[in-house]
Amino acid sequence: MRRLFWIGLLALGFAASSSAGAFSPGNVECIAPANPGGGWDFTCRTVGKLLYDLKLVPRPVKVTNMPGGGGGVAFAHVVTKRKGDANLLVAASPATTLRLAQGKYGHFTENDVRWLAALGADFGVIAVRADAPWKTLDDLIADLKKDPGKIAFGGGSAVGGQDHMKVLLLAKAAGIDPKKIKYVPFSGGGEALTSLLGGFVQVFPGDASETIEQMKAGKIRILAVLSEERLEALPDVPTAWELGYDAVWAVWRGFYMPPGVPDDAYDWWVATMKKVADSPEWAEIRAGRGLAPFFKGGAEFEAFIKQQVKDFRELSRSLGLIK
Amino acid sequence: MDVLSQLAHGFEIALTPLNLGLALAGAFLGTLIGALPGIGPVNGVAILIPIAYALKLPPESALILLAGVYYGAEYGGRISSILLNVPGDAGAVITTLDGYPMAQKGKAGEALALSALASFIGGTLAVIGLTLFAPLLAEWAIRFGPAEYFALMVFAFTTLSSLAGRNPAKALAASVFGLMLATVGLDPGSGLPRFTFGQLKLYDGVDFLIVAIGLFAISEVLVLMEKSHLGEAARMRVETTLVPLKTFLASLWSILRGAVIGFFIGVLPGAGASIASAVAYTTEKRLVDREGSFGQGDPRGVAAPEAANNAAAGGAMVPMLTLGVPGSGTTAVLLGALMMFNVTPGPLIFKERPEVVWGLIASMYIGNLMLLVLNLPLVGLFARILTIPRWFLIPAIAGLSFVGVYAVNNSAFDLLFMTGIGVWGYLMRKFGFPLAPMILGLVLGRLMEVNLRRALAISGGDWEILFASPIAQVLWVLALVSLLFPWLVGRFARAR
User: Fold this and answer.
1) How far is A149 from chain B, CA to nearest CA, in Å?
2) Contact A152 B458 (CB under 8 A)
3) How many other CB atoms sit within 10 Å of the CB of residue B351?
4) Is B340 in CB contact (< 8 Å) with chain A?
5) How many C-beta atoms lie closer than 10 Å to residue A230's C-beta?
6) Do the two domains A26-122+250-318 and A123-226 of this chain adopt the same fold?
7) Contact partners, residue A252, CB within 8 Å, separation at least 6
8) A184/B146 CB distance under 8 A
9) How many CB atoms lie within 10 A of CB B133?
């Protein structure tokens, strides 16, 4: 009996020493902090699938939907209950940082988790119906300056959410009082788009991925993209930036991990996400979904997030959304 | 004729052995998923997406499998509604109102078979509507703005009064409970939390399905326990005969009306299967319930909502395929799945990927037929669930409800909430309050509020916007008629 015990201990020792220093993933789980069908769900499912397809993880990634509080329920769960779990990824986007900045996750802050990486980015757009009187962004801005109450912006997020922020950012850049802007919140980009097509709202501050197909079908016109450079998928659409409005809205798609994840595991994940981002398979999915290349990982991503939360907090304060 | 040749091409795709097998598998899995309380079509489809990937299916085959799960679940939801008074999914809540009393009277087999037929007719009519009129319907759907949705919800609310039964005051109170629950969550206008008590889990509002399962299933468990404790638990008589032709013919008009109502409401992206089945049910009650037998196990009260919720599932495909906009929670997931298969949904999908669209449409005809063939022979088996002894059935219902609700959000909070609602539901029953108005108050209250506030945000606070469009005006007139209907009928009867 005793000998068996020592042999067992020895075997365990070997197993431990062979894995020490190099993290190896086990049963990886990805939490999508929303119901199936949205952007976070997409992030988890596609990247999860690629991780397995590219043989970077040994078993298929389990996707868990944990909706509630705009991601707050998942954030609280990860911080309080999953500390140190190196096999857990959580999908994130500017919706996460924006809510953190506005204090919508209770007492939790951006410093409570480990930010892993972003793998691609969608960009905000300013879209109107194909038969709208505005041919350019300048036309729209000129009319907005005359009478902001006449033009209704219908977006897919709540007041203070991403689509609302895009409009406020643009108004601020154009020297229009953001408080005079009329914003109508819909439950999701699809409903907002339907309302634009029906003529109930005049402008849809959505994302490029939601609007490209509608533009190809001749139903809507995209006046400007809220990016620094023109998008591959929309080479003829000017950026707000080049038209002289300092309004950029990058909807990056990425992940955070629980607090207390050991550095070796964290570094392994950063390198792995880089491999995913560089793979031709990801390039194809990314393009199909209308996402532009956008990779930030590890320390660079951590710094980017902290800066973004800071910027969002100042912006929300200056727009009167938070005190 | 173009449509027919396209459809023929679609059948060529759908009738390959692989796609036929997938449609059958999807329909079967969907029935099971729908029958389990909690897990509905949304989760069912989401669970199967990775499997569809792993099998390396071409996009049209994957979509056929996933869509099979979707309408299979709409079929399956009725089973636990009828047998156990536990709605299997959101669209099946209304089916409990007459389905469960039918089963209690020993007509479980009849209720199951009739509802399967109604589901088949509703589903098939919806696919025919989708085939012939999809682009036209899409034009209609985008004419519904916030003001029109608000008027629609008001109309639906007025039809609720027909659920009042013997005690209108109690029914009114029950619907106010629902409206009160609907105010929990982030304020749709300002984004500030209301009645959330600092609980992040309440920020998105109260989940309709959790309330439905708590209110019906948990309270049912409590009632059953009370009865067995008092020794009232008589062994139930179960007939597993199928529908007599007479009953079917008597319900045929209810089925057809239910299908039409369900389809049109399903096409609207801002309404869904639960509203469709409620409006279909209350309309039938108004139109044909002369003896007051609705709510006591009237076959028509099972047939109409089942036809409606299946037709709504078909209707929800219209905005998904023509506009690239989801018509329901489940079609949102289907859209996501399409994108992962590198099919970009949108207004051009009919032109760019006809094989996907027409393969799907053809498979819906086949899938509906399969579901009928699959469901009818199983009626006897399902009905026999009722012969399970109480000491086993009660914990089984409770267990299924807990597992189902936990599986949706992985949240223990939901379980506590469901239990609380269950106790509340038990008290409501004891004091003679009807349960259905509370559920519908919850669904309608939320939609009424967001749409009213959107409409007023657009108009800058001018109430005239609510009555501005012809669609809204028609709906307001319908609401008025619905409200005055009992009085008008009374006058008419006396005049004769």
Assistant:
1) 8
2) yes
3) 9
4) yes
5) 16
6) yes
7) A93, A94, A118, A120, A121, A294, A296
8) yes
9) 16
In the chain, the amino acid numbered A185 is P
Best mutation target, A159, A167, A194, to test chain B (most B CBs within 10 A): A194
Beta carbons of A65 and B409 less than 8 Å apart: yes
pLDDT tens string B329-363: 788 888 878 877 777 777 788 888 888 888 889 98
Backbone phi, then psi, for B31, in 5-degree steps? Answer: -60, -45
B205 touches chain A (CB under 8 A): no
What is the Cα–Cα distance from B400 to A167, expressed in whole angstroms?
A: 46
Distance CA B400, CA A33 (A): 25
CB atoms within 10 A of CB A236: 6
CB contact under 8 A, B49 and A149: no
Residue B239: per-residue pLDDT: 63
What's the alpha-carbon Rg for chain A, to the nearest Å?
A: 22
Chain A residues with CB under 8 Å of B201 CB are 68-69, 73
**What is the amino acid identity at position A38?**
G
The residues in B 128-157 lying below 8 A from A, measured between CB atoms, are 141-147
pTM: 0.86
Q: In chain B, where are the structural domains located?
A: 2-495
Residue B356 sits at the vertex; the CA angle it makes with B355 and B361, to the nearest 5 degrees, is: 95
**Which residues of B, range 9-48, sit inside 8 Å of A by Cβ?**
42-43, 45-46
Residue in B48, B69, B200 to test binding to A, most A beta-carbons within 10 Å: B200
Nearest chain A Cα to B334, which residue?
A: A37
Cα A125 to Cα A243: distance, rounded to the nearest angstrom: 14
Residues 242-281 of B with CB under 8 A from A: 269-270
Please indicate if any CB of chain A lies within 8 Å of the CB of B491: no
> What value of ipTM does the predicted structure carry?
0.84
CB atoms within 10 A of CB A210: 22
Give the 3-state secondary structure of residue A61.
coil
One-letter identity of residue B171: A
Q: What is the pLDDT of residue B32?
A: 86
A190·B409 Cβ contact <8 A: no
Domain boundaries, given as residue ranges, for chain A: 26-122+250-318, 123-226
Q: For A67, which of B336, B347, B409 is closest by C-beta distance?
A: B409
- Report d(CA A149, CA A139) in Å as an integer: 16
Pairwise CA distance, residues A150 & A153, whole Å: 10
What is the topology classification, in CATH, of domain A26-122+250-318?
Answer: D-Maltodextrin-Binding Protein; domain 2 (3.40.190)
CB B404 within 8 A of CB B37: yes
CA distance B92 to B143: 28
CATH fold for domain A123-226:
D-Maltodextrin-Binding Protein; domain 2 (3.40.190)
Cβ pairs A/B, distance under 8 A: 146
The pLDDT assigned to A54 comes to 93
pLDDT digits 0-9 by tens, B31-86 = 888 888 777 788 888 888 878 877 888 888 988 999 899 888 888 888 888 988 88
From the CA atom positions of chain B, what is the Rg in Å? Answer: 22
- Distance, in angstroms, between B495 CA and closest chain A CA? 46
Neighbours of A109 (CB within 10 A): 14
CB A189 within 8 A of CB A210: yes
List Cα–Cα distances, B51 to A165, B62, B66, B484, B488, in angstroms.
38, 9, 10, 52, 56
By the 10 Å C-beta count (0-12 exposed, 13-18 middle, 19+ buried), A208 is classed as buried
Interface contact flag, B198 A213, Cβ < 8 Å: no
Tokens of B406: 């936990």
B458 vs A contacts (CB less than 8 Å): 152, 182, 184, 200-201
